[in-house]
Amino acid sequence: MDRRQLLFGGASVIGLSALAGCSSGLGEQSAQAASKKLITAADLKMEVGTPYPLVSLPGKKPMGQVYDRPPNYETPAEKLIGEKNYPYTDNDYYYVRYREADVLEVDPKDYTLKIGGDAAHNEVTFTYEELLARSSTTVGAVGMCSGQGRGLHHPMIPGMPWTKGDLSAAEWTGIPLKDLLKEVGVDDSAEFVAFRGGRLISMTKPQYWRSYILDTIPDEALVALKMNGEDIPFWNGYPVRLVVPGTYAPPWVKQLVEIQIRKTNHPMEWSGREATPNKLNLHSFVTTPTDGTTVPPRRPIEFTGVAYDKGDGIAQVDYSIDDGKSWHKAKLEKSYGKYTWRVWRANIEFDEPGKHTVMCRATSTTGEKQAVEVSEDVRENGGRKETAARLYAAHIMVEDG
User: Fold this and answer.
1) Which terminus of the chain has fewer CB atoms gathered within 10 Å of its CB, N or C?
2) Tens of pLDDT along 78-116?
3) What's the pTM value of the predicted model, to 2 decimals?
């Protein structure tokens, strides 16, 4: 079967499957399955976890080229959980998202960050060296586009057709934004904070500005200088970028050169939408085995995935192999911080050959459960922030015999 047909053509659930491992709870069946050798991703000849051609940008490993100009490259699903920086995505696989054809190249020797605005008490300018010399803090955070998964819809949603790889997680190091704003002085009239990237966009929008509502910015927000302990990669915002944990990443301005504390929203706000709290929705999906991978029948297969939200924390992940009729608890690995994804694992065994679907859904510490079905207004909102378990289901082929 053609892999794109399997990934984009939908998948039905065939028969019932026995579950293996401590999460299955099926008595004798579980014991029999546990006695078999567990098959991990390393044992499988996996499909690449992106349907797009693999292309290596300078300084990056092969990623799915969703679009070349502007450069938009998604992380293959099997590379989301890094090896060098576990459980964070390795820098050379961190996804790339730009709206401009040419990425701005900033020489740190010429770099300055200006902070002011009509609701600031002062205006201050910092050089790159001055920022590096300041005390810093580190926070792990998931960064993802609000249009992630558009390419999984049927029919497809207009916009960049990302599948599962328009996100990554990293450990960011930088200066707390709240410290810089306090140093400049925030007037009681302040309502918004606007951030500008260094690139000139066009004659109609000559600057790139994104805004946050002041009162919704978490204390952990950073003016980031390092990513996973190294300089931020060129494609991910070098030398300085904004990081606002627990929020969608389009406003995490790359090549950050100016911050304005404002009484009103900035008129050049890029998206044309009103500024909102922008908080991440509850989300989980399978990273391995990847879509289209063929696995043997009647053998326990280790499935691995990630789960995350706006920072409440993940309490549980469940999975289903019978179209949501029943759910089984996966095993959660330890937490690396409330804004970082939790890695989960489940051992699943399939009895019958053919095409199978594996869904997963997360539950937060507040009791919120990830939606199973795609929302009815998904086309009207452009597929933005859609987290339905059915949309992100993993589609696996079980071989005959």
Assistant:
1) C
2) 999 999 999 999 999 999 999 887 788 889 999 999 999
3) 0.90
Place of tokens 């797009």: 52
Only one residue has tokens 């349907």, namely 51
- Token readout for 350 is 């399939």
Task: For Cα atoms 273, 283, 12, give the angle at the middle one, nearest 5 degrees.
Answer: 115
d(C-alpha 27, C-alpha 210), whole Å: 54
Q: Of 36, 46, 44, 78, whose CA–CA distance to 61 is shortest?
A: 78
The beta-strand segments (E) located in 28-160 are 54-55, 63-67, 72-74, 96-97, 112-116, 124-127, 137-144
The pLDDT tens digits of the residues spanning 345-399 come to 999 999 999 999 999 999 999 999 999 999 988 888 888 899 999 999 999 999 9
Residues 6+ apart with CB under 8 A from 98: 70, 71, 72, 254
Of the candidates 308, 349, 354, the one whose C-alpha atom is nearest the C-alpha of residue 332 is 308
Residues 383, 159: contact at Cβ < 8 Å? yes
Going through 14-160 in order, the beta strands assigned E by DSSP cover: 19-20, 54-55, 63-67, 72-74, 96-97, 112-116, 124-127, 137-144
